[in-house]
Fold:
Amino acid sequence: MTVRPVMLAYGIPPLLAFVLGFFGLVQVNEAGVVGASAVVTASAGPETGSNQRVVNALERVARTEGATIARVVADRAAPTTRRAVLVTDAPTSRGEAWLRDGAPDFSRSMTTEVRPMSVLDEYDPTGSYDVFGDERARKATMAALADVGYEVTSERLPWLQRVGVTDGVTSTTGLVGALTLGCVILCLTGTIGSPRRSAIRRLHGWSAGRVLLAELSDARAGVLVVAVGTPVVTAGLWVYNGLTSATTLAAAVAALWAALLLPVLASHVIGTLLAYRRPMVGSLRGARPGGLVAVVAQAARVPALLLLVAAVFELTGAVAVARAGTAERDLRAAGDTVQLWVTPDPRPIGTQRYWDRIGEFAGHAIAHRDALLSATVEVSTGRGRTTVPAVVVDPGYLRLRDVRAADGTRVTAGDRVSVWLPADSDLARGPLVRSLSEWELRDAPAPVRQDIAGGRLAPQELYSYPGDSVARSWFDDAVLVVVPEPAEAFSADQLGSWLSTGDVVFTNRAAAERSIRPSGLASEFSAVVAVGQVAAEQARRAATAVIIGGATVASSSVVGLVLALLATTAHRRRHGRALFARFASGAPFLRVDTGLLAMEAALLMMATVVAINRWWDQRPDGTGRNSVLDPVAQSAGTAGALAALALVALSAASVVALAVTARNVTRTRGNGSR
Structure:
C-alpha cells in the first residue's frame, strides 16, 4: 500500500498528543494534586484565627458540601521529592478515600503522604488550598476562611488545566507549531498538488461529498496509530506508575488529539474541495499542481525557518543551564550546606519591616558562623555598559573553599573589604572598585568603602552555591569580593533578599535549625534544603528542557527540509516541460533555476537576520535585562552561530534537492507537467 502524505499528516497528531498529555500531567502532579477544581489562597489578615479554627471551618465546609479540601505541604527535608497532603475527611469524599488508601501520584519523582487536616497545627495555615468540588464548595471555602479572619482570593481551574493540557502545550509551543505546520502542508500537497486523483473520481460520476468522504478515509491512519499504540502505552504506564490517573491521561490525550486534528482536517477538506473544482481535462492530462500550491509551499517555509531559529536558541540555552551547575563536582562542592526557602506568597512582603527581620536573622546567623555569604552579582566595570560577574563572600565561605591568590597563597578575610580580580583579566581595578563602592557597597560606612584591599587570583574556578534562580555555579571570570562583616557592609533588606534567593547558605542542617528555633521566624521558612538537592532539581528541570529543545530542533529541521522538498517538487511538476526545454537547449543549472535559487537566498537572508536580532536581544548588554550571570545570556553567541549553521545546512540541502530534481526532470523529459 502506498503511504500518501495525507496519511502521514493524520499519523502525527496522536503521537504528539500523548507526549504533550504525559508531560503536562507530570507537571500538574509535581505542582499540586491532579483534579482540583479550584484553588483558594489565604493570607494573614489583621485578626486571624487559630489553626484549629481554620481546621474546624474547613471540615464543616467539606461535610456540608460533600467536597474535599487539601493543603499541600512540602517535606522540609526534601521538598522537591516528598510532600504531605492535608485533607478533610467528610464521609464518602475523596479525602476519606485518600486517608484510607493513599493519594495517587502520577509522577514517580514525587512521593505523597496523606494526613488529616487536623494536623494543620504543625504548619503555617496561610497559603493555597485545593478544592475538589463544585462552585458552591469553592465559595463556601472562601467564606469559611474569611470568617476566621484571613484575606482570601480564589481561582477556578478550567478542565484543560486540571488534566495538564495547558501545562503540556505551554512548554512545547515550538514543537507543536513545527509539526502542525508540516501536517498542514502535507495535506495541501497531497490534495491540491495531486488533482488527478480527484479528477478520476469525478470522471466516474462521484459528487463532491462522495469524493470528500473517500478522502477523509485517510484519517484511519490516526486510528491505526492509536490502536497499535494503546496497548504499548498501557503496558508502559503500568510499569511506570501502576496505571495511576490513566483515565485522566486518556482524557487529556483525547482533548489534545482533537485540537491537533482540527488544522489537519481543515487543510485536508479545503485542499480536497479545491482539487475537485479544478478543470477535469487539465487534471487528467497532468497539469499539476496549480500555482497556488507552489506559492503556499514556499510561503510555509518562512514560519518553519523562524521556528528553527527559535528552537536552536532555546536548545542552546537549555544545554547551557544543564551544564551551569549539574556536574558531580557540584554536589561534592555543596557538601553539607543547606538553604532556607522563605515561605512564598501570600506573606506581608510589601512591608519593609518583614524583610528587615529576615535580614537581621541572616546577619545574626553569619556573625555566629552558622551561615555564610556567597552571592553572585553583576558589577559594572566603570567603562560604559560593560559588566562582569562578581562573587561576594564572607570569611565563612573562605573557610570552606580553598581560594588561591596569584602568588599561590590562600585568600583569607582580613579586617577590611578586599577585591580580587580574576587571572588573565584586563579589567581596570580603579573603575571597578569605584563601581562597587557606589552601588554594591553603598550601605557600608564610608571608611569601609574608601579602604579596599585586594589583588589578583590564580587561575581557578570560584564556586557559588546554587540558589533558586537560574545562574552559573562555577566562574573562571568572576571578581571575588571578600567582606569581613556582611551585617555592617550590607543593609538588612539586602541580606534578607540574599537569604530568600539562596545566597546566604547555612553550613549544615543542624546549624540552620539551631538558628531558626530562637528567632521566632519558623513559620517564614517552608523548607531547609540541601544545596546538593537544589542542584539535582535544577538538573532535572534542565534535562527536561534539553529533551524538549532537542525534539523541537529535530522536528523543525525535518519540517523545514520536507517543506523545501515539497516546494521544489511542486515547482518541478508545474514547470517540468519548460525546464526540460531549457536544459535541452544547453542552459546552465544556475540560469535555469535562477528564480528558485533567488528564493532560497532570500529565505536564508531573512532567517539569518532574525537569528542576528535574536542574538542581539539575548546577549548580556550591561543594562541588567540580560545578566552575565545567566547561562542562557552567556550562550547567546553560541546559539547564534549554531542557528546560522543550521540555516546554512538546511539551505544546502534545499540546493541539493534542486539539483537532484533538475536531473530527474531532464531524465523524465518533464512528464506530468507543462
The chain has four domains: 1-31+163-288, 36-156, 297-330+535-674, 337-507. The first helix runs from residue 5 to 31. Residues 382 and 434 are 8 Å apart (CA to CA). Confidence is low (pLDDT under 50) at residues 670-674.
